[in-house]
Specification:
Strand order of the largest sheet: 1-2-8-5-3
Shape: globular
Helix content: 40-55%
Structural class: alpha+beta
Bound molecules: protoporphyrin IX containing FE
Oligomer: single chain
Number of helices: 19
Largest sheet: 5 strands, mixed
Length: 484
Amino acid sequence: MDKFHPTLIYILLFLATLFYYLFSKKHNKRHKLIAKLPPGSMGWPYIGETLQLYCKDPNIFFSDKQTRYGEIFKTHILGCPCVMLASPEASRFVLVTNADLFKPTYPKSKEKMIGPNALFFHQGEYHTQLRKLVVTSLSPESIKKFIHGIESIAISTLDSWPNGYIINTFQQMKKFSFEVGILAIFGELGKQHKEELKNNYCIVDKGYNSFPTNLPGTAYHKALTARRRLSRILEEIISERKEKKLSEKDLLGHLLNFKNDKGETLSDDQISDNIIGILFAAQDTTASALTWIIKYLHDHPKLLQAIKAEQKAIYLSNEKGNKSLTWTQTRSNMPLTYKVILESLRMASIVSFTFREAVVDVVYKGYLIPKGWKVMPLFRNIHHNPEFFNEPQNFDPNRFEVAPKPNTFLPFGTGAHSCPGNELAKLEILILIHHLVNKLRWELVGSQDMVEYSPFPVPYNGLPARIWREPDTQEIYHQKKLPK
Ligand code: HEM
């Protein structure tokens, strides 16, 4: 017989599959039996260690745990068993090399508020395709064209601060980052639509972190109602764009032109949820970074002088601010300011950690991460580990003259969900700092060493600061009209 009978082939295939299945199950079981849960305490029944986390500064909670248990430990917060990971390798394992074993996870109330189609709630094909679109729209090549627009927003934000008065720095930076977000998403947007978006987004923002009770009068209920209004405003903007058949190259233009492999386009809901999601991801993060930078510069007067000198040289070469900043200036002529941004992102670690959920039982370094448990890579612990950053409590931008070791500097995360807005964030920060240090002086008011979580860390009370206009730039800035 020179050929195998087909039945024999089927039997062999069946036996091979069965053997593989039994062997791999046994192997996994043995692996799981050997693997133990990480060290750590699960606290009280149900509430776990939630009170300890919220009564202390969360950063102290995490660093105490790391000192006690090492780089991987378990705990139980907000009704969920969690494994926390404080090493660069573990972050890479969860977010990059084994990202398919861990899915993004957010409370349902937050998902409802932003919109369930926003890309950061997803994994797989939908996420990959949308992410490609967002990454393209926010790439350096695409954001170059916004430089004049961002500059105009920065100038009008600073011009709105009355001389000698106190501002709430974080709230002012929120206004600035929201306007830049609108510019990146819509390009030019009519005044009325912009105002309506701003007013309703503000209500959503206020209710986002409130207790999710959907009863009339509560902040959460008001936020859900405003969220529905936002959908209607966005539908109007989308249908106007479709009617005018404008093929703009901003983010909305990309969303409207999107077609997946099967030729399907995005629904209006999918577009709206992603717009709100991007505004949400962009606003408080960037505003918090800017607020910290203003505080760190105030606390380090010599560094502030050096930044002023760097920015003044650009200002003078731009005919005392009469010519617009160029892309090359932001990329090549601001090296110290750029290092201040990196060091501020390390020190403040605005996104201190992120959440994922194990979709199967996973074994990491001999420890079991059970299916359904939350997994939290702790970026802040890595940024403040003396093994990777010498004297981590010192604010030292010059440490960034040498690139940090791989996976030790993660202000924008890493892997499949890393921040697609990081170039835009850095560009808008550079532009605002350029005008701020050339145009103003500031003095901090009140207590300066406490931190609030909103949920991102922000200096206490939003960093109140008294502002003065530098006399020699006052005239020029008021006359200035930037070319489009
Ligand atoms: C200093 C400012 C910013 C910081 C520190 C920051 C930080 C981060 C981090 C750490 C992540 C990853 C979260 C995770 O892995 O779970 C992320 C994701 C994201 N960020 Fe940013 N971000 C900033 C500004 C922005 C801006 C300006 C935009 C948009 C204009 C933006 C849009 C997004 C989006 C859409 C995601 C989700 C990506 C995905 O799931 O694929 N971010 N950001």
